[in-house]
Each structure stands twice: as C-alpha cells, then as structure tokens.
Design goal:
Chain lengths: 62, 276
C-alpha cells in the first residue's frame, strides 16, 4: 500500500505552472485590486478561460 | 503568446477622460412652496460628466434630481452655484442638448414622422435628408409602420419610443433624460433601455448621456457612473463606477450586485430620514 498522500499543489507550485494567458489575467486582477478601495470584480469564464473582467467601484461622497 | 486575452474596461480610462462635457459646481436650488416658504431642493451638489460618458443621477422622489437636469437643459436657473457645458455657463436651452421628458412631449397636430422632421429642421438638417433620417430612426425604435399616424393614435410606450427617436435623430452631443421610461410598462421599458444602450455604444464615445431616475435597476443597467443622491434636500452621497460591457442585462452578476449595494445605500438614507 502506498503511503504517498495525494496533496493539493502549494500556491508556489500553482503559480509556477500557470500559462502566459493565466498570468495575464492574474496580473490584471491584481492591478484592479490595488486600484479599488471598495468594489466588486467579476470574472466571466467560458470554456475554461477568463473571457472578461468586469468591475464596479464605490466612492463615498459625503 | 500575446498579452491579456480578457476584455477589460479600464477604470483609469474613465478618470483620465478629457475636459468635462457637463459640470455642476456647488449647485443650490430652492423652490417656493404654496404657503410661501422657501425650501432647499438641491444642496451644494458638485459633479462632472466627461464627453462620451453615460451617467445616471439616482435618488428618491423629491431629492432635487429633476431640478439639476432642468438647469443643465437650460430650462431653469440655479439659486447659487453654476452649471457649465463645454466650460461655458449654461444660459438657456440649445440644439446641442436633447431632453427626453417623462411624458413624451410630441406635437399632437403633427404626424410621428413630422415630429422628427421638425426637430431635424430646428437643428439645421437639410430638407432633403429629413424624411430619410426620420424613417431610419422610426425603424430603429420599431415604429416604421406608424410614421404617418398622429401621437394620440399611439400607446404611451409607442409615443415615448417616438420621442426617443426624435431626440436621437438630431444626433445631440448631450442627451438629458428625466425619468424617460418612468411611465412605461416593463416590456416597453426594457426595449427602450436596450435601444438607448445600442445608440450610446454606436456613437463610440461622442455622445454624453445624463439620465435622472429613481429606478436603481435602470441606473445600474445603463450607466458608467451612478451618482446616488440623498433624500431632500438632495446632495450626493455615493458614486458607483461600473465597468462592464454593453449591452448589459439585469441578470448580469455585476449589475445585480451593484443594484443590491445601491439599494442598501438608499435604505440607510431612508433610515436616517426617519431617525431610526
């Protein structure tokens, strides 16, 4: 009997295995996250790919 | 592989837009009640609308949003503060701004097509181009078969469609809407919301739309920016910038989320108003 546990990849392993396309999506998302103080980001996925990033940003005015 | 496959509407592009098309600075508007008292309707409101932006001014009834629109349309003067178009103070109505009122203000003695042709004449469209433009715009709002009928022969929804066609046919720089779909049934409203989105997209950043509404869903569906006003005396309390492609649907995740957040903001306002 094998005692090798089936572990989930670590975040480092995940990041290392990303395709260029996936990297571009994550770079865009992190850019948005850094820019927005309050808001919502929606990733639209089709056929296993992020095809659109939508967002809403809120500002308190008074 | 090339950079960034996903389609992103960048927030920064909205912020770095050129000089404002419309500006409202420290605007105060008062009105006199029947008992002679002076009531503040708009309380020091300041905002800008960039060229090509679609902004909705959202607030409860009586918050002064129509007063602001009337001032921008040049139909009313502010008590204090100022309203500018292309950097110049607004002193009266002009062909550069089309206004869509809640009631379709069509001339009852003219046919639907003649209403549109008259508007085209007033903005200086050559006579030989008017009939064709009128036909095109009536077709765009699904009224091509009703060109020769008079407004009273149409339903309320059809009249508002004709008014929309008239407003858009003149290719205005600015379209101001005062609850333009407020009196329509749900289906007619949806049809016109789609039409407005289509036209706005087609103008590719040349047309500036400012709509006043108390309908949260309409604002979230249509606008790049929703400016949320408090109850009377109206001031701006929150701004929501929405970056999502058009045409949008009320079922879109982001639209639905924005609707619920704005509802929450407005409910807080109501609670404040009732002292809870």
């Amino acid at each position: 009997m094998s005692d090798e546990p089936t572990t989930e990849p670590t975040s480092e392993q995940r990041l290392a295995s990303l395709s260029d396309e996936e990297r571009a999506v994550l770079a865009k998302v992190s850019e948005i996250v850094q820019k927005i103080q309050y808001g919502t980001v929606v990733l639209v996925i089709q056929d296993g790919k992020v095809v659109q990033i939508e967002m809403a940003e809120k500002f308190r005015l008074r | 592989m090339s950079e960034a496959a996903p389609n992103v509407v960048d927030l920064a592009s909205l912020r770095s837009a050129g000089p404002p098309k419309l500006e409202v600075r420290d605007l105060v508007q008062t009105r006199i009640t029947t008992s002679g008292q002076s009531v503040t309707a708009v309380d020091h409101v300041t905002f800008e609308v960039a060229t090509g932006e679609f902004v909705c001014l959202l607030g409860p009834s009586g918050c002064g949003k129509t007063s602001i629109l009337n001032i921008l349309a040049g139909l009313d003067r502010p008590f204090s503060g100022e309203a500018r178009l292309d950097g110049h103070p607004i002193s009266g109505p002009g062909p550069d701004r089309a206004v869509l009122f809640q009631e379709p203000a069509l001339f009852p003695w003219l046919s639907v097509a003649a209403n549109i042709e008259l508007a085209l004449k007033l903005v200086g469209t050559p006579a030989d181009r008017r009939p064709e433009l009128a036909r095109t715009w009536l077709a765009n709002v699904g009224l091509e078969r009703f060109a020769t009928v008079q407004p009273h022969e149409l339903s309320e929804g059809m009249r508002q469609r004709a008014a929309l066609a008239r407003a858009l046919a003149t290719d205005p720089d600015v379209l101001l809407g005062d609850e333009p779909f407020g009196s329509l049934d749900a289906q007619a409203r949806e049809l016109l919301q789609d039409e407005v989105q289509r036209v706005w997209v087609e103008r590719e950043g040349r047309a500036t739309f400012l709509f006043v509404t108390h309908n949260v869903r309409e604002a979230a569906l249509l606008a790049d920016r929703v400016l949320v006003m408090s109850a009377a005396p109206g001031h701006l309390i929150e701004e929501v910038r929405i970056s999502a492609p058009r045409p949008r649907s009320l079922d879109d995740v982001l639209v639905a989320r924005v609707v619920s957040e704005i509802h929450e903001i407005l409910m807080r306002e109501v609670d404040k108003g009732t002292g809870r």
